[in-house]
Specification:
single chain, alpha/beta, seven-stranded mixed sheet, three-stranded mixed sheet, 10 helices, 10 strands
Length: about 290
C-alpha cells in the first residue's frame, strides 16, 4: 500500500492539464469499452427525464461519463492541490450567509448533493468566519481508501466526522455560530434503514433523514450548496439559506426543500450529477412518503 500511495502522490503532483489527458483516456476506455454502470446511468437518466428523447438521454449519458472521468483525476489532484489553486478554481457565492449565521449565534448545516465536484467543497474552510468545519462521511469498507479520503477532506483545516457520530458531536458542541457541518445529503439509506421517501426526479426515492432529526431538535442555520461546473477544472458554488415555513422546521421539511433545490440544480445541468449511483435501488422498501 505504501508503494500505491507513493504512486498516487506522484500522479497527483502533475499539472491538471496533464491529468485531464488521463481523464480523456479514462473516458474513452470506460465509455466505449468497459462500460462501467453504463446501463444503470442510462436507466437512471431515462426514468428521471421521461420527456426527453433517446438521443437527448444518450447525449447526457456521454457528457456524464466525461465529467465522471474528470472527477476521478480531480479527486487524485486533491491529494496535493494547494489552497491557493483551489481558491482560484472554486468560486464561493453568497458568503454573507456564513457571516449572518455567525452573528445569529447559529451553527450551520451545509447540504450538498453528488454534483461534480463535491469533493472540492471542503476547500471552503479557510474562508469561513466560523472556527471549525466538519465534513460528514460514511465509512468506506476499504481501509486504505478511507484513510486517503479522510486526508483529502481534512485538508484546509477540516475535521471529518463519521455519520454515526454526528448527532452526539452536535449535542456536545456549543451552538454558538462557530461550527459548520457539511452533509452530502442525497445519500441513499442502506436497505435495512429505508423508511421515508419522497418524489425526486419523477421517482419514489428513499431519503436519508439524519439531518432532519437535527433540524427539529436544534435551532441551526440550514444552507443548500448549488454546485455549478463553469468549465473544466473550475466550479462555482452558490449558497442559499433554507428557512422554515413557520417559526421552526416541521418534521421532514428540510428534507423536502433540499430535494427540491437539488432537483432544480440537476435539471439545469443534468450531466453534472452522479448518475452511476444506484439511487433508486431500494425504492420498493419505502414505508411512508413525506
Amino acid at each position: 500500500m505504501k508503494v500505491l500511495l507513493f504512486i498516487l502522490q506522484l500522479i497527483s503532483r502533475l499539472p491538471l492539464k496533464i491529468l485531464y489527458l488521463f481523464s480523456d483516456l479514462i473516458f474513452v476506455l470506460n465509455y466505449y469499452f468497459v462500460g462501467y454502470r453504463k446501463k444503470v446511468v442510462y436507466e437512471n437518466i431515462s426514468a428521471s427525464f421521461p420527456e426527453k428523447s433517446h438521443e437527448d438521454i444518450k447525449k447526457i449519458q456521454k457528457e456524464f461519463f466525461r465529467n465522471f472521468s474528470d472527477y476521478i483525476v480531480e479527486t487524485l489532484k486533491a491529494i496535493s492541490i494547494s489552497e491557493t489553486e483551489l481558491r482560484v478554481r472554486m468560486q464561493h457565492i453568497n458568503q454573507h450567509i456564513f457571516r449572518e449565521a455567525k452573528e445569529e449565534g447559529k451553527n450551520i448545516i451545509l447540504l450538498a448533493g453528488h454534483v461534480f465536484n463535491w469533493e472540492w467543497i471542503t476547500a471552503l474552510a479557510p474562508i469561513l468566519p466560523q472556527d471549525k468545519c466538519y465534513p460528514v462521511y460514511r465509512k468506506i469498507r476499504n481501509t486504505f481508501w478511507e484513510e486517503q479520503m479522510i486526508k483529502i477532506r481534512n485538508k484546509s483545516g477540516n475535521h471529518s466526522l463519521e455519520a454515526k457520530d454526528v448527532m452526539r458531536h452536535m449535542l456536545r458542541n456549543p451552538n454558538d455560530g462557530n461550527s459548520v457541518y457539511l452533509f452530502i445529503a442525497d445519500q441513499s439509506p442502506k436497505q435495512a434503514h429505508v423508511d421515508a421517501g419522497t418524489v425526486f426526479l419523477n421517482q419514489k426515492t428513499p431519503v436519508f433523514v439524519g439531518y432532519d432529526k437535527i433540524s427539529t431538535r436544534m435551532d441551526l442555520a440550514f444552507v443548500y450548496c448549488e454546485m455549478k461546473k463553469v468549465k473544466r477544472g473550475f466550479y462555482q458554488i452558490n449558497y442559499y439559506r433554507i428557512y422554515p415555513d413557520g417559526e421552526k422546521f416541521e418534521p421532514f421539511e428540510v428534507v423536502r426543500k433540499f430535494h427540491i433545490h437539488l432537483e432544480n440544480t440537476i435539471r439545469k445541468r443534468p450531466a453534472n450529477y452522479l448518475w452511476s449511483h444506484r439511487r433508486w435501488k431500494y425504492a420498493d422498501h419505502i414505508k411512508h412518503m413525506i
